[in-house]
Every structure is written in C-alpha cells, then in structure tokens.
Amino acid sequence: MTRPTFTFDDLKEILREGAGADPETLAETTLDATFGDLGFESLALLETLGRIERQYDLALDDAAFTGATTPRALIALVNEQLNGAAA
Amino acid sequence: MTARRVVITGIGVLAPGGIGTKDFWSLLSEGRTATQAITLFDPAPFRSRVAAQAAFDPEEHGLGPQEVRRMDRAAQFAVVTARQALTDSGLDRSEHPPHRIGVTLGSAVGASMTLDQEYRVVSDGGRLEHVSHAYAPRHLYNAFVPSSFAAETAWAVAAEGPTTVVSTGCTSGIDAVGHAVELIRDGSADVMVAGATDAPISPITLACFDAIKATTPRNDDPAHASRPFDGTRNGFVLGEGAALFVLEELQAARRRGAHIYAEIAGYAQRCNAFHMTGLRPDGAEMATAIDAALAEARTHPSDIDYVSAHGSGTKQNDRHETAALKKSLGDHAYRVPVSSIKSMVGHSLGAIGSIEIAACALAMENHVVPPTANLHTPDPECDLDYVPLTARDWRTDTVLTVGSGFGGFQSAMVLTRPGRNAA
Amino acid sequence: MSPATVVTGIGITAPNGLGARHYWDATRTGRSAIAPATRFDPTGYPAQLAGEITDFTAEDHLPGPLLAQTDRVTRLALLAADWALADAGITPSTLDAYAMGVVTASSSGGFEFGQNELRALWSKGSRHVSAYQAFAWFYAVNTGQISIRHGMKGPSGVVVSDQAGGLDALAQARRHIRKGTPLVLSGGLDASLCPWGWVAQLASERLSTSRDPHRAYLPFDAAAHGHVPGEGGALLLLEDADAARDRGAHVYGEIAGYGATFDPAPTSGRPPTLRRAIELALDDARTAPADIDVVFADAAALPELDRIETRALTDVFGAHAVPVTAPKTMIGRLNSGAAPLDVAAALLALRDGLIPPTVNVTPDPSHPIDLVTEARPAALRTALVLARGHGGFNSALVVRAADPGRHDAPADPREGRT
Fold first, then answer.
1. CA–CA separation, C279 and C281 (whole Å)
2. What is the pLDDT of residues B256-283, one digit of tens each?
3. d(Cα C27, Cα C18) in Å, to the nearest integer?
C-alpha cells in the first residue's frame, strides 16, 4: 500500500473548499508566507485543520498546529504525522 | 419628566447545581462546582466531554406531559423560571392588565437540542437528504422559530404586551433584560418578565465547539474543568439553564411594598465589528459598553463594588476582558473584586448573562461576592482580584456585569441599590 | 421631544426582484415569483410551491472567505446591507464606528447551513461538523456579519418573533436612534427553502398544498387555505431625521409609529390583540385612523387568521374604509423578511402614489375590506404595515411620507440606483 503524502496542491484544494481561498493566489512563492499574511484568519485555519484531520484520519495536536504558521510548515507537519501513523 | 426607573422584584433561576434562588446561592457562596461528565447523551466521540448539566425533571416543576412534548428543554426552563419569578415577586396580577405586561426572552441557540434530535429522526440517521415530513412532529415549527419560547413564557404568565426573543449570541441574557428595561422606561409596558434560557448540551453544539477548540478537553477532571483566569485553563465548559426576572417601575414596586432586589440603572451594548468568534486583545469595545452603562447609571467607576465577569475560561476572553476592565475602571480595576461564576455553573451561552444578573442581585442581597472556583495558578496576564476559591463578605451596593459573545457582541449592565439615592 | 426616525436607504432581496428598483417594478405591476421550488426537489412533499430568489449569484457579490462561512440568508443580508448603505449614500468607513448600529430580525437563522452540518454529524460523525457551524446557523449571524463587514460598532440587536420580528427590529432600531445613535441599519431576512426547512414549515400545517401558482396563496379569498413560503427580505437605513437633513440625504419617509402585542393563550377564551397593536401604533404616530391611506396586511391566508385581521381593521377603520393590500401574494411569506419588505413597498408606494396589488385574490365578500387587487393610483401620505408571528405575535408600524418642506426630498433621485 502506498503511503499517502500531503502536497501543496492538496492543501490548496482544502483551503479552497474550507476557507474560500482562490488557488490562483497560492503560488509556490507563498509557501513561506504566514497564513495571516495570506489572509487566512483563525477560523479558516481551524476549518482547514478539521478537514485535513478528517481526510487523512489524523489527530493533529493543538500545539503543533499553532506552531505551523506557514503552508510549508503545515505540509511538513501533516506529512510527519502521516509517516508516523504509517510506521 | 423624570425617567422611569426599573427594578428587579422577582427572580427565577434554574442553574446546574441549583434550581431556585436558595440552592443556586448556596452553590455559589460555597464555591462548589456543578461541572461533570456529560450524561444527557453518550459523549464518547467528542473532544470535550464535560458540561454543567441541570438536574431538571420538568414534571416535578409543574409542567404537564403535553407541555413537555411540545417544548424544547430551553423553553421548559423558561416557563419554570418565569413562574418562579412571578411567585417570588408577589405581584398581584389583578392590578396589572395583561396588555401592560410583556416578555423579553434571551436565547442564543434556540431549540438546538430539539432540532438535533428531530433531524436525526426525519433524516433517518442522516441517510435521507430529502428528510421525511411523515416523521416530523407538529411541534417542529416551535423549534424552527424559537420565538415559541417567548410565546410559551407569555402564556405562562398571561402577558399580552410586547413579547419577543432577543438572540444576540452569548450576550442575549444581558441584552434581553436591557431590552425589557427600555420597554418599561419608554412606557411600552409596566411589568416585564425578562431573562434568558438555553439548553445547548447536544451533539451538534458539542461538535461545533470541538471544531473551533473553544471547549475544554479536560475530561479527566470534570469538577475542576472550568478554570477562568487560571493559567492552566484551556477552554470553556458548556452549561445550560435559565434565569428570568420580574421587572417593574420603581415607584409602582414601592407602592405595593414589593421586595426590591436591585435597580437596573445602566445598560449598554456594542459590537466589536472585528470577528465572528475572535476578540481584539485591547478590549476596547467592551470598555466602551462599560463606559456607556456607567454613564447611564450615573455611576463613577470607583463606585463599583463587584464585577461579575464574562470569564468564560478561554485565554482569549480572559485577557480581553481584563484589558477592558482596566481601560474602563482605571486603578479601581485592581481594587474591585471580579469573579466568574462560570467556574461553577459553566457557560450556558445565551442564558448565562441572566444567570449572572441573578447572581449579582443575590450578591447584593447577601453582601457576599461569589468566588472564581478552580483558580489556583493565576495567569500572569490576568492580574486583577478574581476572588479565588472562596466567597468573600463584601459590601456590595453597586455591581457591574459584562458579557461577550460570538458575532462580536459586548454588553455591560450596572445594578444598584435604589435606596442609595432615593428618588 | 425625541428626534424623528427616517428611512434614507433601501436594500431589497426579494423573489420577484433583486434590488429595490427591480422589486418595485415587479411589485407595482403585479409580477409574481411563485413557482415550483427548484432549490431542492419538492416532489415528495405535500407543498411544492415557493417564492424563490432565482437570480442571485453570491459569488458575484461576496469574497470566497465570506462565502465559506455563510448561509444563504447571510449572503442575501450582506447584499441587502450593501445596497441600503449605497442607496443612502453612506460610506461607513468615513463615519464614527460607534455612531452606527445594526438590528436585524431572524426567524430560523442560517437553517440550510445547519441542515448540512446536522447531516454531516448524523451521517458521518461529529468530526465532520464545520468550524463555521459555531455561528453560521444562529440567529445573530446577520447582525454580526454586517457589523463586521462595515465596521459598525454602535448599539445593535437581534430579535426573533417570527413574522412580526421584522417590525420589532425596526422599532428597536428606532429606540437606538432616539437614545442617540444617529444611524442604524435594520430589517430582516429569512431563507430556509431547503428540505429540512420545508419539513419544519410543513409541520405548522399552514402551507398551501396547491400546485397552481395562481391559486396557492389567497388571503381574504373564500378559497384561502394556507400560504406559500418565500425567501429574502429587506434592510433599511434608518437615521435620525435631523442628521439626515443635515447631510442632505434623500428621505423616503418616517418610521412614525409602532405597537406590539401578544395574543392570549388559545385556551384562555380571551380575544386576540391585533386591534390593540394597531391602535398603539396609531397613537404612537399621533395619527387618527382616518389619516391612514393604505394598509399592508399580514395576510395569513388561513380563514380564521384572515377573519381576525379583517375584524381588527374594521374595528379600527370601519368597513371598506381604507385600501388594504398584500403584495406578498406575489412572493409568499418571508418570515422575518416579509414586514421590512412591506415597509419598503409602502415607502415606494407613498413616493409614487401607487398602491401595489394583491394578486390572484378574489375578495371574499364576507371580508368587509377594500382589498386592492389591481394597482391603484392614490394620493398617499401615511401607511400602516401589519405583521403577525406564529403563536400570537402582533406588530404594527406606521410610515409617513417625508415632509418635502422639512427634508427637501427630491421627487425620485434614486431611480436607477441599487
């Protein structure tokens, strides 16, 4: 069985569905911008978190999530958990 | 023309751990908590599994089987506390024509419990998108539009004056009373039965608060789960209940020799226009509401003897509120006792504002301020006197109560002892 | 004396017209929007007709992040708010935030949003419930979202009294203005045309089961047998009359009087109280019955409720003494949205000297009222709007034409706006 990985495209799709983001505005160059600077407020991020947890059957702990302030950090966090869960 | 002054002459309260003013005040003055593991349904799938439940048997409180069938639990709370308040007031109904009596009932989430239960049935456990009308009970319309709560209450007290539900989220309990005060002041009614009710301990409500991580996951220690202003707090504990009041014009109350608990001397409501669930850390809008309520009550900040805090037990709220109190009360903020009864009775959303008004009236009655339970490790950013753990004997003539709710609502109310500056 | 409260802006989202101009064009010419429901498949239900807004594309008006967190009713409310402000020429960002309030009425909140989350909960589990469910469905959501969008921090509010709530909101807004808040956006909307909302409304046993759009909602008709539910409503920009005059605003009219009562319990044997609500509103407006030029009726279209309304009107005004109309026969009953929309229609009727018609109805001679079934030109200065809510809520509101001498109101400077 292939281990699932969480990509920037996956995140963009979730941000589109859950936070009403325009995927066009999320270029590779925004990977290291903070979610706040990208215009996502706390609720949009909580909704995003919930959707990731459901789709990937994860339970991200609060502290880790709070620390993942950029798309790159969040993607890394999710993949870390996915790998951990698979191990 | 002198403005009509409005006083509380009757209190009905139904809170977790205390139904009726006597048991309610015992709980608060003894600093006991009513938070527990949820038993109203199986909370196993949820992140937060604690709540403050009311030990409520509707038939024991005089509701008939048909009333129980057609009313949501929150409406039942309202009717029971309306009757308590009316009895407590000693109002002689024959002296007040029905059209001069109105009802203002606060509720944040209406009949969410009934909606949750009935949706499950008509959708056959979520399977049917086109839910089945054949399985819908006739009283479903009463849950669809929660003005039915005000209707039931008006029927219970035979009111035919202005009647409505006020639903401003978690400030509903203050705003409903404030609205009723306005109606007496402007002559729309002579007596108002006003207050708020909510019964939100249901799967859908737990689920949405789980999703925004607003409620505490402290499931292993339910009795100590609600920890406003404590450094270890991590969310609020859901509660339920109601408090309703009989409000009258001061002179009329005096003429009939009514017992007067307190005057509602000032009230104000503002919006933060910021965020549906978020609060600006500086507390500016709540401070503006407090300032306006004090001005209406012609009360100086240093006259405030006690502050009943919103104190929900979220980090965001506790800091926001502490900042607002400092902004409005200045140095006096450090001297005045501030406590949150949500530490004991949980956060019953729209109802809690009225339950806290009841607590304020009883604090004035007894010259005792209730404590903030479970406050062992103060949050260094919350540096006021939050009356930790034990109630305090304290001369309490002028009280401020504040509330803050989703939608950005910020409300403040000032209660005074009317004898202090008799008209 | 308290300052007068005037209407300086109108924002409408109605089944027969999006925007005040389209709504009024349709309403004065009797264009109905009642048709088989399309937002869900109604064929399994006994009632199948609705007054739907079919030309609203939320994406054209609101940004993605707001769409993600809002029910249909809130999207409509945000649009109506934008239009009411624009119509009044108000730019909130240039004004004192605390000098602007929002008071809305809601009957069933964001019910479709709630439906979808209940479905997620019971079909998939609690983890599938959206974070936005914490507020997107509740009754306060429109006031909250409007205040946030426009930075309005002043005294606000939310009332729930079923159909009567739309007038109760305007009355509360007027109270705020009298206490010193110069500007309040107020009115109401509902939009619960979804399977769950449909079943909840069917439970009232007040919906018409007719399949004929022309025979489904017939108040004051011998064939009255219930109503058709609709969606939408109106928000009005209310201002302190002096402040409006000082800024040279166009004034549609004054909110001159209001009264509210509640009916006794059905088992009490006591009479209904609608008449008293009307009398309170007239007294409040310092208006004699003879000064009322037109009545916008609640028009429940149930024989008993129609009789009660006719009785109240004839008791106050006399038989056939005042024109009565119910343009909601074109769009259905909109719960909290109905009465603010009628207030808007009344103001436009005063402006144009035209009473919009009650369509489809053949007046039952047992109702001794002058029911206007064809648009009727008339000199109009004062109108009465009635609204009743399920369970016994009665509200009445008097609107009066702007006094051109006092407000310098141009005849119709807004045509083409909104």
1. 5
2. 999 999 999 999 999 999 999 999 999 9
3. 12
* Catalytic annotation present for B382: no
* Burial group, residue A43, by CB count within 10 angstroms (0-12, 13-18, 19+): buried
- pLDDT-derived band at B30 (thresholds 50, 70, 90) equals very high
Q: Are B83 and B62 in contact (CB under 8 A)?
A: yes
**A57 burial type by CB count under 10 A (0-12 exposed, 13-18 middle, 19+ buried):** exposed
Residue B369 host element (H or E) = strand B368-369
Among B349, B330, B321, B325, smallest CA distance to B406 is for: B349
Residues of A in contact with C66 (CB under 8 A): 20
Q: Which residue from B203, B270, B288 is facing C121, i.e. has the nearest CB?
A: B203
Chain B CB contacts of A43 under 8 Å are 212, 275-278
- Residue C411 forms part of a structural domain: no
**Does B208 participate in catalysis according to the annotation?**
no
d(CA B12, CA B14): 7
Query: Over chain C (418 residues), what is each successive 10-residue block's mean pLDDT?
Result: 89 98 98 98 97 97 96 98 98 98 98 98 96 97 98 98 98 97 98 98 97 98 98 98 96 98 94 98 98 98 98 98 98 98 98 98 98 98 98 98 57 42
Determine contact, residues B309/B339, Cβ cutoff 8 Å. Answer: yes
Let me know whether C63 and C138 are in one domain.
yes
Q: What is the spatial distance between Cα C52 and Cα C191, in angstroms, rounded to a whole number?
A: 9
Set out the domains of chain A in order of their start, with CATH numbers: 8-86 (1.10.1200.10)
Same domain for C396 and C289, yes or no, is yes
* Distance from chain centroid for Cα C318: 26
Q: Domain holding C111: CATH number?
A: 3.40.47.10
CB-closest option in C67, C69, C127 to A54: C127
* Residue-range domain boundaries for chain B: 6-111+146-416
Alpha helices in C290-395 (DSSP H): 303-317, 338-352
Tell whether ipTM is more than 0.90: yes
Q: Do both C201 and C240 map to the same domain?
A: yes
- Is pLDDT of A31 > 70? yes
CATH of B6-111+146-416, one of 3.20.20.150, 3.40.47.10, 3.50.50.60, 3.30.930.10: 3.40.47.10
Asked whether residue C407 is domain-assigned, the answer is no
Chain A residues in contact with B275 by the CB 8 A cut-off are 41-43
DSSP single-letter state for residue C4:
P
Residue given tokens 């956006």 in the structure block: C185
Domain-ending residue, one of C201, C228, C246: C246
Nearest CB among A43, A50, A62 relative to B277 is that of: A43
Dihedral sign (CA A23, A27, A31, A33): negative
Q: Which of B224, B347, B360, B382 is catalytic?
A: B347
- Between A42 and B187, whose confidence is greater? B187
Task: Please name which of B174, B226, B165 lies closest in space to residue B360, comparing C-alpha atoms.
Answer: B174
AA identity, residue C226 = G
Say if residues B207 and B227 touch (Cβ distance below 8 Å): no
Answer yes or no: do C352 and C396 share one domain: yes
pLDDT of C414: 43
Pairwise CA distance, residues B364 & C161, whole Å: 34
Strand partners, C236: C10, C186
How far is the C-alpha of C105 from the C-alpha of B146, rounded, in Å? 12
Chains touching B by CB (3 or more pairs below 8 Å): A, C
For residues C398 and C277, state if they share a domain: yes
The C-alpha atoms of residue C378 and residue C177 are separated, in whole angstroms, by 31
* Contact in structure between B359 and B370 (CB atoms under 8 Å): yes
Going by C-alpha positions, the residue among B182, B219, B272 that lies closest to residue B47 is B219
Q: Among residues C216, C246, C276, which one ends one of the domains?
A: C246
Whether residue C359 is found in the same domain as residue C233: no
Domain range spanning residue C303?
Answer: 256-402
